[in-house]
Design goal:
Number of helices of chain B: 5
CATH class of the largest domain in chain A: Alpha Beta
Shape of chain A: globular
Distance between the termini of chain A: 28 Å
Structural class of chain B: alpha+beta
Largest sheet of chain B: 3 strands, antiparallel
Structural class of chain A: alpha/beta
CATH architecture of the largest domain in chain A: 3-Layer(aba) Sandwich
Mean pLDDT of chain A: 95
Strand order of the largest sheet of chain A: 2-8-7-6-5-3-4
Number of strands of chain B: 3
Radius of gyration of chain B: 14 Å
Strand content of chain B: 15-25%
Strand order of the largest sheet of chain B: 1-2-3
Order of helices and strands of chain B: HEEEHHHH
Largest interface: A-B, 26 and 28 residues
CATH superfamily of the largest domain in chain A: Type I PLP-dependent aspartate aminotransferase-like (Major domain)
Low-confidence stretches of chain B: none
Oligomer: heterodimer
Largest sheet of chain A: 7 strands, mixed
């Protein structure tokens, strides 16, 4: 049975051309970019070219791009780097309750170290209000961190407006763009951001590499100490194949008329959303209906639990994700779903399907065929079902 | 997730036994809560001190469904005394083991059975099981 992969928000397959581009950097061009000899120089050239390419794709200068081991490191670097570099100026940080754990848990750590964190609420679709951020600012505020788009429910945040307020108030602004980089046009000047995190494996690049954009002049301390790599801001011998892979993934996005790819995915997404909502009673869409990632479907299907849906889908060869606790190892359901106001049992009933550039209409149709049957079977077993036949 | 489940667990999940309700049940146990995402309802029919039928309904993950299915199988034909001896470990063992994070589902199944027996005792004698207490986790 051919499997159907609907979990692109978790990770994407590496594009074959990306893999080809990376191969020479394992055995042929294998030098350490810091070495003076020819092996080093050719490796250095590869990462310089990658840097230029990645910078250009977001309207940044090359020296504003720092390669990291992924989105998580970029987020940690941004938050701790700004916090510790600016703590004499202030100790207040503003963020939202729907951030990815790489931001949320890092903020939790900073709180323990004496920083004050204000979480401004989001509405029932997951949207933050820029005015709430303005109101929360004090003369001790040094950083605002709001994700570009939410990985669970897909909601796209008003980054430009938030950034404008931060500029006005002279406060650093970081955005976790892990779910948007490579999926929509990004111009760091337009977005008014000082820092931006991204990860290669969300856009058909390899796992283990990402980047942090840091606007020139930003006061930030390094995250990793050691050698002088990444302009003295992130020590460690560079992951040359990974960096080349990231750059190639970016190049493939830019070159492929990404607008029409994303539009095709968006139409399949809407087909899936409408199909689910119309064929399954007591199902709701989570997240904003319009300001939404082109590939994200997140629904709550009442009276049944998320992990049991995933297991049944997996038995049919369909791979998806859920905000239910059962699949996360804790007893608490997704903090994102709770923050948008879902009662716990509705959060436990969530199903996330995220499409990719190779998702076909046939696959969407198959999911729409299979899911209602699964729901019916699970609802027959459920003590919460209001009526005998769903 | 699915990679942590034994074949037996997946068997009971894919083909659960004894799903449903018993209209004139001798005892009903309802445990769990929406906050932690597991709710189990266990129905038992008791004749002359023996459990002659058992059915369940569960809102929960693969392990929750499998443990409730397994426990209905285990109690059929047992006396009340024998049923009271069924521990969550026995349920997990019958399923060839559960991942550590899922052991609480077997605890919930044990609680559901005890709650059903407690309900039966109150219905027939006016008094519940001596010392009956649900495990704290799901309060």
């Amino acid at each position: 049975m051919k499997r159907i992969y609907m979990d692109h928000a978790a990770t994407t397959p590496t594009h074959p051309e990306v893999l080809e581009a990376m191969k020479p950097y394992f055995s042929d061009i294998f030098g350490n970019p810091s070495s003076i000899h020819s092996f080093g120089r050719e490796a250095k050239k590869a990462i310089d070219d990658a840097r230029d390419n990645v910078a250009g794709s977001i309207g940044a200068r090359s020296d504003e791009i720092i390669f990291t081991s992924g989105g998580t490191e970029a987020d940690n670097f941004a938050l701790e780097g700004i916090a510790y570099a600016n703590e004499k100026k202030g100790n207040h940080i503003i963020s939202t309750p729907v951030e990815h754990h790489a931001v949320a848990n890092c903020l939790g750590f900073l709180k323990k170290r004496g920083f004050e964190v204000t979480y401004i609420p989001v509405d029932s679709t997951g949207l933050a209000d820029p005015e709430d951020i303005r109101k929360a600012m004090t003369d001790k505020t040094i950083l605002v961190s709001v994700m570009h788009a939410n990985n669970e429910v897909g909601t796209i945040e008003p980054i430009e407006e938030i950034g404008r307020i931060c500029r006005e108030k002279d406060v650093y602004f970081h955005t976790d763009a892990v779910q948007t980089f490579g999926h929509m046009p990004i111009d760091v000047k337009k977005l008014n951001v000082d820092l931006l995190s991204a990860s290669a494996h969300k856009l058909y690049g390899p796992k283990g590499v990402g980047m942090l954009y840091v606007r020139k002049g930003t006061k930030i301390v390094p995250y990793l100490y050691g050698g002088e790599q990444e302009m003295g801001r992130r020590a460690s011998t560079e992951n040359v194949p990974g960096i080349v892979g990231l750059s190639k993934a970016v190049e493939l996005v830019d070159g492929s008329d990404n607008g029409s790819t994303e539009e095709r995915i968006r139409q399949l997404r809407d087909k899936l959303i409408n199909g689910i909502l119309s064929s399954i009673d007591d199902s709701i869409l989570n997240g904003h209906p319009i300001k939404r990632l082109s590939n994200n479907v997140n629904v709550s299907i009442k009276y049944i639990e998320g992990e049991s849906m995933l297991l049944r889908l997996d038995m049919e060869g369909i791979s998806a994700s859920t905000g239910s606790a059962c699949s996360s190892g804790s007893l608490e359901p997704s903090h994102v779903l709770l923050s948008i106001g879902l009662p716990p049992e509705t959060a436990h009933s969530s199903l996330r399907l995220t499409l990719g550039r190779w998702t076909t209409e046939k696959e969407v149709k198959r999911v729409l065929e299979v899911l209602p049957k699964i729901v019916r079977k699970l609802r027959e077993m459920s003590p919460l079902t209001s009526s005998p036949s769903p | 997730m699915a990679s942590g489940y034994s074949k037996k667990v997946m068997e009971h999940f894919a083909h659960p036994r004894n799903v449903g309700i018993i209209e004139d049940a001798s005892g009903v146990g309802k445990v769990g809560n929406p906050v932690c995402g597991d709710i189990m309802e266990l129905f038992i029919k008791v004749d002359n001190g023996k459990i002659t039928d058992a059915k369940f309904r569960t809102f929960g993950c693969g392990a929750a469904i499998a443990t409730s299915s397994m426990i209905t199988e285990m109690v059929k034909g047992k006396t009340i005394e024998e049923a009271l001896k069924i521990s969550n470990k026995a349920v997990a063992e019958s399923l060839e083991g559960l991942p550590p994070v899922k052991m609480h589902c077997s605890v919930l199944a044990e609680d559901a059975l005890k709650a059903a027996i407690n309900d039966h005792m109150i219905k027939t004698t006016g008094k519940g099981l001596p010392g009956f207490k649900l495990h704290e986790e799901h309060d």
